[in-house]
C-alpha cells in the first residue's frame, strides 16, 4: 500500500539554512520551505527493499545498531539528504530515476558517510562558532557607526567603515561555512566508496549518478563562484570520484538479477501510483509484457476507476507469482477503495500473513474490517490495529481506523483518544487537544487512557503544527 503522510517536524526548520543542518547529494530546493512538513510516502514493499539496501552499508559504517530509518519523500526530483542524524530522506524521484539497485545504493552510501562522519553535529558546531563571530563583527561595526555619527568632520567616512565592518565579515563567514560543507561532501563521497568496497559492491552506480548531475549542471554552473557553492564543483567532484571508484576491485560487479527485478518492481509501483496514466503507459507500453510493466499498468488502471480490468490484471500477476504478498495487498487495496471492503478482507489477510505481519498492511486490513460493517469483525479490527500502531506509532491511518472501530463498539472514550492521536500525528494540535480534552472526561482519572489524553492536552506543539 502506498499512501502519504506528513512529517511531524517541518523540513523548513530542518533545512531553513541549507549550509546549516542538511547534507545532501545535491542542493535541496524542496517545496518544504513553505512552512509545511514534506509529505511522506509509506509502502512496505519499497521500505523493505531500501532496508535491505542499507543494512550492509550501515553495518560497514558501524551504525547497524543505531536504528537508522529510510524515509521516502513525496518529491519527483532526484535527491536524498540527512537532516537529524537518525534518518536518511530520499525522494521518490531518486528511486524512480535510479535504473539499477547499485545507483540508489551509491546514493545511500554517500548519505551514510554523512551520518558516520557526524557531519550534522560538526556543522552545528561550525554554525555556533560562526554566530559568535557574527555577533562580534556586528558589535564592532555598530560601534564604528555610532562613533561616526557622534563625531565631526570625518563622521561619514567612519560610518561607512562601520557598515563595511558589518557586511565584510558576513561574507567571510559564509564562505568559511560553505568551504566546510564542501569538505564534508567530499568526505562523504570517500566514505561512501569505502563502505561499498567493504560490502563487496561496486561504486559504479554512485559514479554514474554524480556524473549525470555533472552533465546536467555544466551549463548552469558556468560563471558561478566556486567559493559560494555548498557542494564541490561538479567536474572536480566527479573526477575525484571516478578515480576513487575505478580503483575498487568491485568496479565491474553487476547487481544480482533477482535484486534488479525487485528494484524494477519498486520503480514500476512508484510510477503507477505517482505518475499520470498517460505517462505510465508511455513508460510501460502494452507491448512491454514484463512483470514490472504489468504491475504499473494494473495500479494505474485501478486508480483511474476501471476496477474490473484492474482486478483481472492483478489476478494474472498473482497467478505468475502466487507467493508475492504485495500482489494480494494491491488486490485488497483496489477492492477496498473500489467500495467492496468485504471482498478486500481475504486478500489482505493473505498479504498480512505472507508479509510477516507488516503493520502497514495490517492497518489496511483493519480498515477493510471496519468498513465491511460487520460488527462481528470489530474486536478483530481493534486487536489488529492496536498491534499495528504499537509497531508503527507515527502512522495516523492506524489511529483513524482504530477510532472508527471503537466508535462502532460504542467505546467513545477510546474513540476520542485514538482520534486525538491521529490529529496530533497529522500536525493538527488544536483538534488533537480538543479531542483529548473530551476523552479525559470519559476516562476515570489516572487510568492509562486518561494519562495518554492528558499528555496530548499538555504537549507543546511541534514545529509546523497548527496551534489554533
Report the major sheet. 6 strands, mixed
Rg, Å, rounded: 26 Å
Helix tally? 21
Output mean pLDDT.
Answer: 80
Measured as a percent range, the helix fraction is 55-70%
Order of helices and strands: EHHEEHEEEHHHHHHHHHHHHHHHHHH
> Which secondary-structure class do the elements indicate?
mainly alpha
Q: Could you tell me how far the N terminus lies from the C terminus, measured between alpha carbons in angstroms?
A: 33 Å
Give the strand order, joined by hyphens, for the main sheet.
Answer: 1-3-4-6-5-2
- The proportion of residues in beta strands is under 5%
- Write down the overall geometry: globular
Q: What's the number of extended β-strand segments?
A: 6
Low-confidence runs (pLDDT<50, min 5 residues)?
6-37, 130-147, 158-168, 172-180, 217-233
How would you characterize this protein structure?
- By secondary structure, this protein is mostly helical.
- It has a domain at about 1-260.
- It has 21 helices and six strands.
- It has helices at about 10-15, 20, 45-60, 90-95, 100-115, 120-150, 155-200, 205-215, 235-245, 255-275, 275-285, 290-305, 305-320, 325-335, 340-355, 360-370, 380-390, 395-410, 410-425, 430-440, 450-460; strands at about 5, 25, 40, 70-75, 80, 85-90.
- About 45% of the residues are buried.
- Mean pLDDT is about 80; it is low at about 5-35, about 130-145, about 160-170, about 170-180 and about 215-235.
